[in-house]
Design goal:
This protein is an alpha/beta fold. It has two domains: 140 residues, Aspartate/ornithine carbamoyltransferase (Rossmann fold), CATH 3.40.50.1370; 155 residues, Aspartate/ornithine carbamoyltransferase (Rossmann fold, 3-Layer(aba) Sandwich). Helix content is 45%, strand content 14%. The strands form two sheets. It has a five-stranded parallel beta sheet. Strand 5, helix 7 and strand 6 form a beta-alpha-beta unit. Helix 1 packs across helix 6 and helix 1 packs across helix 7. The N and C termini lie close together (6 Å).
Length: 309
C-alpha cells in the first residue's frame, strides 16, 4: 500500500489544496464521516500546545477514532531512542501519527519508517494544518480566495512559509513584510512563487509593513520569538520593533480587511493592546477552523488509505 503523508503544503497539488479547504467547509456545515472508526492515532508532541492538541483530539474522536497523547518526556524522540525506532514501534501499534516536532527532519524520518500516515502538526519549517485553517477562515470572511491580498507582517517563519505556498496554490496574493534577514526559506519561497505564477497569484516581499498593508484584504501576524528561538530574543526584539500590528497599521488596509493571528499572541510585542478584540479580528474563528481543517486532512488521508488497500 502506498502510504500518504501530510508533512507540507507541497504534498498537495494546488487543486487538492482547494479541495481540502472546501471539504473543511463541508465538514463544518454538515455531517461528519467516520473514516477513523476502529483506528487509533498517536499524538507525538515535542512541543506543548492548546489549539493543536485539543483540535486534533476532538477531530479524531468526531471522525470515529481514538488517540493516545505522547509528550516529549514520554518518548524522548531522537534522545532516549532513535526516531527510526520510535517510528517502527508506533507503526506496529497505531494507524497514524500526528507529530509536533522541533526539527522537520524528524517528520521525514517518521514518514520513512512508520509505514502509516504521518501528519505535520508543526515543525521548524512548516505548519501546514494552520495554513488550511487559515484559508478556510479567509474564504469564509472574504467570500473567496482568488485575488485576495494577504499581508503577513513579521517573521518569515513556519506559519508564513506554509501560508505563502497555500496562497500561491489558490490564486490569493501573498506579501511578506519582514526585516531583510527574516524572509522565507528559499525552497518555500520558490515553491510559492512557482505555484503563484501558475495560478495568477502575486508572491512578494517588502521591508516596510505599511507597504504590505496598503490595500490588503487580510493583515496577518505571528509571534516574533517562536519556541526554539529563545536564544535570539534580544536580536529579534530589535529586528522586529517596527513590525507591530496596530490600529494605525490596519488603517492602510481595506476598510473591511480582517485581522488574523494563529495565537498565542503577545500584546505589546507583535500586536498592540486590544488587537485580539479589534472589530475586524477573526482570530477565534481562525482557531475554531483548525478543527475542521484537520478533520478534512484526516478524511483525505484515511479515505485514500482505505481506497488503496
Amino acid at each position: 500500500m502506498d502510504v500518504k503523508h501530510f508533512l507540507s503544503i507541497t504534498d498537495l497539488t494546488p487543486q487538492k489544496v482547494t479541495q481540502v479547504v472546501d471539504r473543511a467547509q463541508n465538514l463544518k456545515n454538515g455531517p461528519c464521516p467516520k473514516p477513523l472508526e476502529g483506528k487509533t492515532i498517536a499524538l507525538l508532541f515535542e512541543k506543548p500546545s492548546l489549539r493543536t492538541r485539543v483540535s486534533f483530539e476532538v477531530g479524531i474522536r468526531q471522525l470515529g477514532g481514538e488517540c493516545v497523547y505522547l509528550s516529549k518526556d514520554d518518548v524522548g524522540l531522537g534522545v532516549r531512542e532513535p526516531v527510526e525506532d520510535v517510528a517502527r514501534v508506533l507503526g506496529r501499534w497505531v494507524d497514524g501519527i500526528v507529530a509536533r516536532v522541533f526539527e522537520h527532519s524528524s517528520l521525514i524520518t517518521l514518514s520513512e519508517y512508520a509505514n502509516i500516515p504521518v501528519i505535520n502538526a508543526l515543525s521548524d519549517l512548516e505548519h501546514p494544518c494552520q495554513a488550511i485553517g487559515d484559508l478556510l477562515t479567509i474564504q469564509e470572511h472574504r467570500g473567496q480566495l482568488d485575488g485576495q491580498r494577504v499581508a503577513f507582517i513579521g517573521d518569515g517563519n513556519n506559519v508564513a512559509g506554509s501560508l505563502a505556498v497555500a496562497c500561491g496554490s489558490t490564486g490569493a496574493n501573498f506579501i511578506l513584510a519582514s526585516p531583510m534577514d527574516y524572509q522565507l526559506p528559499s525552497e518555500l519561497w520558490e515553491e510559492a512563487k512557482s505555484r503563484g505564477a501558475a495560478n495568477g497569484s502575486s508572491i512578494s516581499w517588502v521591508e516596510l509593513p505599511e507597504y504590505a498593508a496598503r490595500g490588503a484584504d487580510v493583515i496577518y501576524t505571528d509571534v516574533w520569538i517562536s519556541m526554539g528561538d529563545e536564544s535570539e530574543t534580544n536580536e529579534r526584539m530589535n529586528a522586529f520593533s517596527e513590525y507591530q500590528v496596530s490600529e494605525n497599521l490596519m488603517q492602510y488596509a481595506k476598510s473591511d480587511a480582517i485581522f488574523m493571528h494563529d495565537m498565542p499572541a503577545k500584546e505589546g510585542l507583535e500586536i498592540s493592546e486590544g488587537m485580539i478584540d479589534h472589530p475586524r479580528s477573526v482570530v477565534f474563528d481562525q482557531a475554531e477552523n483548525r478543527l475542521h481543517a484537520q478533520k478534512a486532512i484526516m478524511v483525505d488521508l484515511f479515505d485514500m488509505q482505505e481506497g488503496d488497500a
